[in-house]
Amino acid sequence: MAYRFDTRAIHAGQPSDDATGSVTTPIHQTSTFGQTEPGINKGFCYTRTGNPTRSALEENLAALENARYGLAFASGMAAIHAVLSTLSKGDHVVSTRDLYGGAWRIFTKVFSRYGIEFTFVDTTNPANIEAAIRPNTKLLWLETPSNPLLNVTDIATCAAIARDKQITSVVDNTFATPVLQQPLELGADVVLHSTTKFINGHSDVLGGAVLTNDQGFYDELKFLQNAIGAVPAPQDCFLILRGIKTLGLRVERHCSNAEILARYLLAHEGVKRVYYPGLVDQPSHNIARRQMTRFGAIVSFELDATLEETRAFTRRLNLWTLAESLGGPKSLFCHPATMTHASVEPEVRRSVGISDSLIRLSAGLEDVRDLIDDLEQALPRATAFASREDVSEFQEQVAS
Ligand SMILES: *Cc1c(COP(=O)(O)O)cnc(C)c1O
Q: For ligand 1, what atom is nearest to the CA of residue 196?
């Protein structure tokens, strides 16, 4: 029977343990497995190749994205590395332009050295993808909503363009999570996650995942997972499985808090611009409505301020933690120009719209009124709203 999302999150890959009845998946903290005769084992021989706790996680992650196959990695970057390692010298990749800084770095500073070529385009306009495709294009790399400007790419249209040209389409679904967006259902070939973020959800572990229905791609990636060896430890797999049990609940609350924060910032005189796909005035809003069930926990905004004033603002926040990363219970904020996107060349940063006064918020799970109070005392000018006890007024401009 096909269970619904929240049921799958708790049950997929996690039956009670056969040997003991343990309700929770055991941590198989072992590097190797005994064999009865050379080559005869109980399905596992060496933890880099496979481990039962990791298998449980991989089966679970696949179920979240409605995928047949799942592979877990030691980090999101390890997952990206494995996917890129399916390419050969001379191959070409078309990618979203405003993407995760670490992805930009491994594309332009590592894989470009191996003779793999990249073209970065604004994928919010699918015609740009068509124009960038060459005879040697093998991969289309999409990140949506993008980091940190929350641009939304139409997955179904872009995946169809790729399929037409026999190009593998990959969607980094880290920001949306499978709760809000299911790229495989929209026609993408491969979904990638940094499970470090919402999927684990507790800011206490690193992980990555790749999910697909394509058996050929899975077989190749499974070979690479073992050949390269960037696998997650059994204890980390256990922690991620533990986090996933509340993924659906957490993401709903993250989204509610983010929606209210976006509306609050929009009304604030000291804020020049708010980036959040849930706001009805955003260019990305219609596509976001079509392919996402809600609009996510990340809100970016530009202060009406210089770099120095922006730095001063970051020092005034108390409850919000200045940190890289996102998707945990504590609300985090960062300054992309000097933190997450510092590895992107200044002129590239400016051309994609990452200004020196841009702030990215990851709305956590706290009481949103405390989050707003802290922003209010730190922002350069007062809000137009007198009372922040009643947050309902901030909800009006967010579509439901
Ligand atoms: C964090 C992140 C990654 C990299 O994941 P790590 O687990 O930090 O290695 C990749 N893509 C996106 C969108 C991310 O936010």
A: 7
Q: What's the pLDDT tens digit per position in 310-334?
A: 999 999 999 999 999 999 999 999 9
Report CA-CA distances (Å) from 109 to 51, 148, 183, 193, 314.
32, 20, 28, 21, 30
329: helix, coil or strand?
coil
CA 377 to chain centre: 30
Burial class (CB in 10 A: 0-12, 13-18, 19+), 325: middle
Confidence check: pLDDT of 185 > 50: yes
Cis peptide, bond prior to residue 380, ω within 30 of zero: no
Buried-state track 164-193, b at ≥16 Cβ within 10 A, e below 16: eeebbbbbbbbbbbbbbbbbbebbbbbbbb
Alpha carbons 325 and 203: distance in angstroms, whole number: 8
Pocket test for ligand 1, best of 75, 84, 97, 197 (most atoms within 8 A of CB): 197
Q: How far is the CA of 326 from the centre of ligand 1 (A)?
A: 9
